[in-house]
Specification:
Layout: E1 7-10, E2 19-23, E3 27-32, H1 35-49, H2 56-63, E4 67-70, E5 73-78, E6 81-89, E7 92-97, E8 102-108, H3 111-122, H4 127-138
Helix pairs in contact: 2-3, 2-4, 3-4
């Protein structure tokens, strides 16, 4: 459940709701009669209060923001450099570093691959995030898939 594990302990007080449900981030969440009800309540709590973090590709898209200036040309600023991405064909992109008047040599077939390259070059994303985003890009999750945690 998003990396969080509930704590379920028994209360010393007499009564029906003797199980205390605790969240590692929030503390006590509630009291329940049955452990199964407490676990389900914790799942709902986590979904509402501690949503899943962005996917690696979404993080890259947030860190490397590109705006289309004219059709087929995107521009963005990362770190101290300005980058331009040119689309030469349906699956061929080129990245230019404007301040250095240089072109980054890489085989790029999507705009997201260009973002990953720019983020790595600018130092705003690390190798682990770049690798995770590339894996996600190559192996997308089907829309109907259910995340297992």
């Amino acid at each position: 459940m998003n990396g969080l594990r509930p704590t379920i302990s028994e209360s010393e007080e007499a009564g029906d709701d003797r199980l205390i449900l605790g969240c590692p981030k929030c503390g006590e969440v509630g009291r329940f009669r049955f452990a199964l009800l407490a676990r389900r309540a914790f799942e709902e709590h986590v979904d509402d209060e501690h949503p899943v973090a962005q996917s690696p590709l979404d993080q890259v898209r947030t860190l490397v923001d590109l705006a289309e200036t004219v059709p087929g040309v995107w521009e963005g600023k990362a770190s101290a450099e300005t980058y331009m991405v040119h689309q030469h064909a349906e699956d061929r992109f080129e990245v230019q570093v404007v301040g250095l008047r240089a072109t980054i040599e890489a085989h790029l077939s999507t705009l997201d691959e260009a973002r990953i390259v720019i983020g790595g070059h600018a130092g705003v994303i690390g190798p682990a995030l770049a690798t995770a985003a590339t894996i996600q890009l190559r192996h997308p999750t089907p829309v109907h898939a259910v995340r297992l945690e």
